[in-house]
Amino acid sequence: MHDPLHPAAGFGVTAPANVLDHIGRTPLVRLERIAAGLPVPVLAKCEHLNPGGSIKDRIALAIVDDAQARGVLHAGMTLVEATAGNTGVGLALVAAARGYALVCVMPEKMSTDKRTALAALGAKVVVVPNAPLASPDNFRNVARRLAEENGWFLTDQFCNPANVRIHEQTTAEEILQQTHGRVGAFVAGAGTGGTLSGVGRRLKAQLPAVRIVLADPLGSALADWVENGTPGPDGSYQVEGIGAGQPPQNLHREVIDGVERVSDEESFGMVRRLVREEGLLVGGSAGTNVVAALRLAARGGLDGPVVTVLPDSWDRYRAKPWMQGWDS
Ligand code: PMP
Questions:
Q1: What CATH number does the domain located at 56-154 have?
Q2: Where in the numbering of this chain does the Tryptophan synthase beta chain-like PALP domain appear (predicted)?
Q3: Catalytic residue positions?
Q4: pTM of structure
């Protein structure tokens, strides 16, 4: 009888390991239907398949490992973070496995599914208004204040260099291995900037001709900042986890060669196509990234495939207006 778990069946069965050992080493898939006929392939890294359902598992583990190694984080302490939700879920996994308490400060725009997931994982969730960085109510300012007032450890994904570093050491390294060192362009949105800065820096060190491109939601101020050094107007948009009114410290402008602006409508339309046509169960920012990747691939002039990331999973957006009506 066929035993799918027998090593000879080719499923790559490995010895049992802690859930944290399964962060990263995600598959890279070719978008065979959506990108058919373009001059170069479009390849997408399935970060939604991380244990916590997003790319942010990588930085959650890296930031805690780094703080432990530096001796600034001790057993039983409380972690606090400003999060769109995904870093919170990653930190909740790490906190559970390592014995920390966790407080997550989230803007009210973020999906209730993410709040529910965080609460289920044992994190305390503080919801604050969608306020600009200049306001004391902004999620990053509230997290910093809570850390100072209570002696909690601010994991600080927006500034912590361990964020950028883990993408250089793992995400970029995996992409180089999975493409045999051939990448024409890498494109991604920026929330903290960790993905784009870290992957961009490592790829550029290896491949001088590679183009590093920011995919920015229409309404975010980051695209203008990349192009001319001054943030654009701080508008609103529905895609979660990417774009900002002010550039975060972990977004390194010098590694970015260009920008693609993507509307909510284009992003959510592409998520539906990724689900239906490619079987990829991903969230809104994956749509933004893939819209931008397709534009780059179609324009041509690249020395290799366009690579992007699918940052998170669709299951955290089921209650969102943009996902309604998918059953029709
Ligand atoms: N997509 C989603 C859904 C996210 O939550 C995030 C992180 N905020 C990103 C993309 C962007 O990743 P980064 O912080 O590395 O720029």
A1: 3.40.50.1100
A2: 20-312
A3: 56
A4: 0.94
